């Protein structure tokens, strides 16, 4: 087994654009659930809206990059309104049901054959990333072993993660964030103090949703393709895993959670493949190994919930009263 | 506080103001000289049972009004209806002349009508101080557009913190300031909730059983705080089962039973009302069964009652108490 390769590919996952996308989307979930108590099980839907919003406006309407970006953000805001208006007055569990259904609806709508000319159906859309790479300021060459395109998307992706983390941190230390945390603890008490709970919940839903949409774009740009199968419910649950790994009501938690998630996935995959190829493990095929690593992630999550339920960055004191 | 000073120049001291509260007779639903809340024909039924059926009720301004009645009389439901947490089936109700029909609960609170809950609601995973700050009104940083810029809300935050410190000291919670509210005891949570509602600087405070679970020494000092709220120009409406408290601080008592207002008046008068004694207080409510004197009074009262066992051989534990008390006396 080539341990050097195993660790270098695991380290590569640490700063891959996909990890950045997961970190952003999980940060959105932290705004939703960790700070405001909104159970959003449809974050994959927000990512899909962001990705398709960008791809469709670029391909079908020839929109320049920043216009496509704004359109995609607007789409996620509208999506948040559609989800929030009927459900935010109800208890938290209703939002969970509606979001999980809405994310599936989005996925089925973009998969329908009637819309093939716009959404590309099950094959999805491709070749919409040129407007993005046209802005690449880095000349061709090798940057830490990457070409200029890979380096550019990493810089943009992680730059966005840092900017969003700072924004979320600033928001959550403000009185606005305090009202959100109050709503998480007890809506009626906050209402009795004269705060418009509904408006705050809507604002939180939108902010988390926009983070999800940005994540969707960062997720698709390096792939050069957007496909409905990427935005299934399992994506939402991977994001929840990242959030729980890192700690729910923290800013850095979701980012570190996403890093841990991808490093563990990469390590287990390479180790299992290495063991199979070297003949040490004969009772597994490489296909089974690919599935086994998700089982291992599940086991890791269970162990975490038992031995460190607050996540890596969470505050143990908060759990003492849960 | 400027409001208080203003009022004082008009030479009305609400602490000693002894003008009559009601206009005319003290009957259920009577008109008040200066009402702050007026409810008319407010009804609310749950599955065929009329939880609240109030024909007419006025709450006097700058007074402490107690709302008493047996369990299930609809006191808390009336609180919910008045503050917008529940919607009545029929009726009109207004606060300072503004109709509250269809007004959502947070707007009611902003108008200056703030309530606490019977089942205490504190934000467990926020510190006591953050709980208090959350109560304050007019914090510009609570708007999303200004939240990012500390310069726009930092000044107000300092004022709020100072205000919260004063209140926490009054309510003996200053040592707990930086602890999570979830670590407070049940009684302390009651105190925190009351202190938090005062952060709003309301015109009308509605307290749902404020003294339940609070120890006697603290009750005494809290009673004084509540009384002093009047001096600051506030009106208080509270639900309480502790009759000593009601007697001690209430200027006016409203008695509810089965959803209806059955009696109103100053505490001394209402507690002698036979209907109230029947429905709520019980015949011997002013006898303290905990001491020998009380037992003697009860014995004397019940001498004429043939069915009573007090003072006879069948008295059971009551006679034991009397015996031991007598021995202690020797």
From TrEMBL, chain A:
Name of protein: Branched-chain amino acid ABC transporter permease
Keyword list, A-Z: Cell membrane, Membrane, Transmembrane, Transmembrane helix
GO CC, one annotated term: plasma membrane
InterPro entries associated with the record: ABC_transp_permease, LivM-like
Localization per Swiss-Prot or TrEMBL: Cell membrane
Record bears the keyword Transmembrane helix: yes
Topology class, membrane: Multi-pass membrane protein
Lineage: Bacteria, Bacillati, Actinomycetota, Actinomycetes, Micrococcales
Presence of the UniProt keyword Transmembrane in the record: yes
Transmembrane segments: 6-31, 65-85, 151-172, 204-225, 237-263, 270-286, 292-307
An MF annotation (GO) of this entry: branched-chain amino acid transmembrane transporter activity
TrEMBL record, chain B:
Keyword field: ATP-binding, Nucleotide-binding, Transport
Nucleotide-binding found in the keyword field: yes
A GO CC term assigned to this protein in UniProt: plasma membrane
Domain spans labelled ABC transporter: 37-283
Pfam families (UniProt xref): ABC_tran (PF00005), BCA_ABC_TP_C (PF12399)
UniProt-listed CDD domains: ABC_Mj1267_LivG_branched (cd03219)
GO molecular function, one term: ATP hydrolysis activity
Highest taxon above the source species: Bacteria
Gene3D superfamilies: P-loop containing nucleotide triphosphate hydrolases (3.40.50.300)
Record protein name field: ABC transporter ATP-binding protein
Protein species of origin: Paenarthrobacter sp. AMU7
